[in-house]
Amino acid sequence: ALIEAAKRAACRQAVAENFQPTFKYVGIGSGSTVAYVVEAIAEKGKSVTSTMKFIPTGSGSTNLIRDAGLTVLQVPDLLAEVGFTPGASKQHIDIYFDGADEVDSELNCIKGGGACLFQEKVVSRLSKKFICVADSRKKADALLTKWAYVPVEVAPAAAELVRQTLVDLGSREPVVRIAGPTYTYAITDNHNYIIDAPFPPLLLNAQADRIDPALGRWTPDALAAKIRAVLGVLEVGIFSGMTGPQAAAEGPAAEGVKP
Ligand code: DER
C-alpha cells in the first residue's frame, strides 16, 4: 500500500508540474503506475480534457484512456490528422507519460515488463518530452542491477534464431516470455513474441570507453544498437537517456520525476 501511495503521489506531482491545459496531444504509456497519471488528468474535468486527444501505447493503454472518459487517438490517425511535410519534426505529441521497469542515474530506462515496448518507443519518438514516473524500487545506479533482463520484441518465426544470437552476445539463458494462465508464448499487440534476455549490469552511456563485449560490459546505447541489429528483432526495451545528440534521433529529452 505504501508503494501504491508513492506511485500515486509521484504521478500527481508529475501531472501538476508538467501538464498544461493548452496541450493538444498527450501520450499515455502502459502499466500500473501510469494509471495514476490518467486519473490525475481526468480529474481536471471535461473543460480541460475534451479538447485533447490521448495517444495510447497498446491495448491496455487504449482501455485505460477510454475508461477514464478521455479521447483516444491512435498513432496512424494522429499522423493523418497533423499531415506530413518531408523533413519536418515528427514530435507532434506535447508530452508522453509512462512508467519503467528500471531507471539509471542518466535516466536510461529498461521498459517492456508489460510487453508494450514497441509502441512505447514509437510514441516516445513522436513526443517533445517524456516524463517517466517510477517509484524507488525502480531506481538503480546502472541498468540491470535491480531488473534482471532486457525485453526484446521478436518475430515468432525468428524467435529461436534471436534467442541463440543473444546467447552469442553474452546473454545467459534468454527465454521467450510465457503468458499465464494458458502457459503459451505471450503475444504482443503487434502479434510478436517477447524474449527476456538477462545481461550483466550495464554501464552508463558516459562510460562508453569501458565497453567490453567479452565481459558482457555494454552501455545502454551500445547494447540496444547491437540487439536491434539482430535479424528478427523488432525493438529493444532499452530507452536511452535521450539527452544530447541522439535526442533528435531517439525522441524527447527524458525528464524523470524523482523516484
Ligand atoms: O512495460 C513497461 O515499460 C511499463 O512501463 C511497465 O513495465 C511499468 O509497469 P508498472 O508501472 O506497473 O511498474
UniProtKB/TrEMBL annotation:
Functional pathway: Carbohydrate degradation; pentose phosphate pathway; D-ribose 5-phosphate from D-ribulose 5-phosphate (non-oxidative stage): step 1/1
GO molecular function: ribose-5-phosphate isomerase activity
InterPro entries xref list: NagB/RpiA_transferase-like, Ribose5P_isomerase_type_A
Pfam family, one: Rib_5-P_isom_A
Highest taxon listed in the record's lineage: Eukaryota
GO CC terms: cytoplasm
Reaction(s) the record says it catalyses: aldehydo-D-ribose 5-phosphate = D-ribulose 5-phosphate
EC number of the protein: 5.3.1.6
Keywords carried by this UniProt record: Isomerase
GO biological process, any: pentose-phosphate shunt, non-oxidative branch
Signal peptide from the UniProt entry: none
Family membership noted in the UniProt record: Belongs to the ribose 5-phosphate isomerase family.
Stored PANTHER family: RIBOSE-5-PHOSPHATE ISOMERASE
Protein's name in the database: Ribose-5-phosphate isomerase
